[in-house]
Amino acid sequence: MVVAETSFGLVRLTEAEREALSAYAARAAWPAGFAIYQRGAPADGVFVVTRGRVVLRSRVRAGRGFVPWIATPGETFGSEGLAGNARYATDARADEESETLFLSAGRFRAFVREQPQNSLVLLNQLMAERTALLDKLRELTTLSVEQRLIATMIRMASNNTFTREDGRIVLCAARYRLLCELVGATRESVSLVLGRLTGEGLVERRGTNLVVAPPAQLAERLESGTLDNELPFPTVGEGQEQALQ
To answer: Which domains occur in the chain, in start order?
Structure first.
């Protein structure tokens, strides 16, 4: 089994690799907006997305949240359930109609015993996703809001559920809110950055939607060194947040 790799270094299980799991896993379909689990609930096993996307969200306070991960086809979520006496660390909600495979901790152990080669592929997937989360943590602590925003939009462009046929991201109101949670910034801060990018031709307004430039142009801007030099803020009181961002 060979793991498919995206252009941004993340791996995703192929359809054939997901099929190898299906004999051990339970398949489920989730309507858009369905809460699959909540933070603090007892966790067991790991989910693999086969269709749609699942948003993991940490609630910061009323009306605000932070999204550390969006699981798309071939990616996993809920892997904290593989640890003993585990509880889920985030809320998980289907962002659109989605399907998953669920491998309980017991079935995961059976999969490892009976199909060691295939189980190594799944473990590779889990480690690659952990690496991606660590890289995102680095962004949160070392990059400015503008840099994080562009890096996030590049990642979103690698998921064709956010893009149109030409590969450009279309931001409606719901996706704009999700973008803010992925960046970990206030809507005001994100709006200021998008306004600058609009003035530079990297974002175009189409009615109530925003159409973002292709990822290659975003990557060129990110690597050009022309972004603002604002550093992200350390942990501070809520009243200081907007001033620092």
So the answer is: 4-139 (2.60.120.10), 144-244 (1.10.10.10)
